Sequence to fold (208 residues):
Amino acid sequence: MTDSDEAAKAAAKAERILTAARAAWLEAIDLCSCIETLEAGNQPEVLSAIRDAKAHHAADLVQRAFFGRLLMEVMTAFDPVREGDFHLKVGMDLIAEEIPRLVVLRRGGGAGDLNKIEAAERHWDECKKFEPLERLRIYRNKYVAHLSDPPACMEDPLVAELFTLSRMVAKVAEALAHGTGIAAVSLESQVSVFRDSARAFWGKWLGH
Fold:
């Protein structure tokens, strides 16, 4: 392979990193926004008002849809890498390679931030070591993406575990977005809009 071929290969990998970083950044906002919406709707006074209005069946369906979306999105970040994929694992695998990493850091006169990329890698390692990860993966595969018998004696994951992993993945995506230079604003600045909207949405049941 010639030097020009190597350069083209590195450039393609760098572009795929940026594609994955953009997608992961948008998904991070969505993950946190789903959590904000679910938490806002899980307040005792809101649940009581919904039950009094006999709207609890529809509300339960809405919340289950959010849970399903959250589970599918967060577990996609850990899926095997196939041709054409650009989920978070793709970006994290490629950014670990020295040459594509340098290309990303040097693009646009040095738009990248090595400290942020290294932070993304540390957070990613924490995600991969998260003990409930495998239970969440199996639950997604057996109950949401497909319908199949789970392993014997498997414990169902807790909602808190899903929320924790989702926030951990969002933290990786935020650091990767900042490290690659595709985003400069904080994740919190983007999610706060949805937090207020979620409270307003469920607050209608309280006459707010």
